[in-house]
């Protein structure tokens, strides 16, 4: 979310590092790990509602071999369940290596059930799943490079 950049000076510095082709330091955060493990692959993903809306079209995402970043706000648990289920049933998540989940709750929203329903849906894939990554629309927006190789250590939230 480019409109959120600038709230944290570290985000702008990280973006500049990426734009100049330099390797930024790893992102670390206080995580809630649903399934521990390590995975490597190109980073892919984005806003959950947007990705799910592309299912059944020529633009449907395919995350085979990828570390998948997902985030979304203003979606109650039953909608998050539907969005992840749509991606699962459409085959978009087949072969994904791991999931890094960013913000699922905006300031003032009740977080109850959101992480639990996403973790439950992704559990069938038997890959690392970690929550709380600093990505999304809620004022935390660490720039990352999609399509580039990334490594995830879900236990260490790095």
Protein described:
There is one protein chain. The chain has 158 residues and is an alpha/beta fold. A 6-stranded mixed beta sheet has the order 1-5-4-3-2-6. Helix 3 runs parallel beside helix 4. It is globular, with a radius of gyration of 15 Å. Helix 2 links the parallel strand 2 and strand 3. The protein contains 4 helices and 6 strands.
Short description:
By secondary structure, this protein is of the alpha/beta class. It has four helices and six strands; from the N terminus they run H-E-E-H-E-H-E-H-E-E.
Main sheet strand line-up: 1-5-4-3-2-6
Structural class: alpha/beta
Which regions contain 5 or more consecutive residues with pLDDT less than 50? Answer: none
Count of distinct strands: 6
User: For the residues shown, what is the average pLDDT?
Assistant: 90
Question: What order do the helices and strands follow?
Answer: HEEHEHEHEE
| Number of alpha- plus pi-helical segments | 4
If you compute it from the alpha carbons, what radius of gyration comes out, rounded to the nearest whole angstrom?
Answer: 15 Å
Helical proportion? 10-25%
- What is the end-to-end distance? 21 Å
Taking the sheet with the most strands, its summary is: 6 strands, mixed
Proportion of strand residues: 15-25%
The gross shape turns out to be: globular
